[in-house]
Amino acid sequence: MISLFELRIPLYRIVVFAAIILLASCQKELSFETPTDPDNIIPPDSLATFSFVPSGNNCSDATTQGILQKDVPLSAAKITLSVNVTKKGKWIMSTTATNGISFAGAGAFSTTGIQVITLIGSGTPTTVGVSQIPLKAGSATCSVSVTVTDGSSTTTGDYYYKAVIGGISYAQYATYDNGFIPGSGLGGTDEVNFSASIDYDGDPAPAGTTGFYIEKGIMSNYLSASDAQFKAFFPIGDLTYAPKGLGLQNGIVIGWTDPDGQFWTTNSGTGDQTGSTFKIISVTDSYDVIGRYYIEVKMQFECTLYNSQTGDEKKLTNGEMVGLFGKI
């Protein structure tokens, strides 16, 4: 039998014990607000199970939005990506800091299937260029590229291209003060192709810069086409590349001018695009100041580029562009 004497606990031990409980409770709440390892925060049976949704040869369809400038704190930058949920529950995803910035998000899935999540950016970029932000879903890892521009430029944040070509990261934004513009082109009369470009508005372009365009064909009966029919020519989803050849072609053609002024396209050389991918992500209505109809199109792609003179080839990966196609 335990005596009353044996049950006595010195007062200072009670105070210390209570303080430990309170401290542990506070630490747990703070950890949930800035998660690092969700398995240590949320009971495992409450965690959702999900995986990345591939896009073409990319392990995820993750994309970045917002303006990222060197030495300017992030204010509206975010990453959006699709995930395939196989078990409902709470989710947390956060990235390690890369180039001074990181992204994080949390929530709960009430249903299974493919759903879109958003990670909000924080921090201040320290270096101009393209960085790979690591993502993790369960044991799977992936990455998404983000482009940091020179903080001295006033970028529109709307129109750009970025890609890894021949193992080197390239990016060009159209800004208010750098001379690059989002161009639109039309080839043909009633059977036509359309192009969107990020190019220097002048000749010659500054040494060491690059240019990029994407062309889509062929649309018939263009002269009588309505705005709705024009927009429908750019369906969201996967598209195929045009075969090797000159003139109007059905499908997608990508062209790139490298820093040395050499021209590369998908339909030069052998034109072989086995394993290449192209996807339209979004299409948004737009009008210029005199009322002409344009669509702002976001595209993601991987392909092989061929030098138009020598036939040499370079692999293009992690490609993304937002450009304007015009009903002009």
Describe what you observe in this structure.
- The chain has 328 residues and is mainly beta.
- The protein has two domains: 45-148, Immunoglobulin-like; 157-326, no CATH class.
- The protein is built from three helices and 19 strands.
- The protein has helices spanning 4-7, 11-33, 227-232, and strands at 49-52, 63-65, 78-87, 89-94, 101-109, 113-123, 129-137, 140-148, 155-165, 168-175, 180-188, 192-200, 211-219, 237-238, 251-257, 263-265, 277-287, 293-307, 313-326.
- Strands 9, 10, 11, 12, 13, 14, 15, 16, 17, 18 and 19 form an eleven-stranded antiparallel beta sheet that branches. Strands 1, 2, 3, 4, 5 and 6 form a six-stranded antiparallel beta sheet that branches. The chain has a two-stranded antiparallel ribbon with strand order 7-8.
- β4 and β5 (101-109) form a beta hairpin.
- It is globular.
- The N and C termini lie far apart (96 Å).
- Residues 1-40 and 152-156 have low confidence and may be disordered.
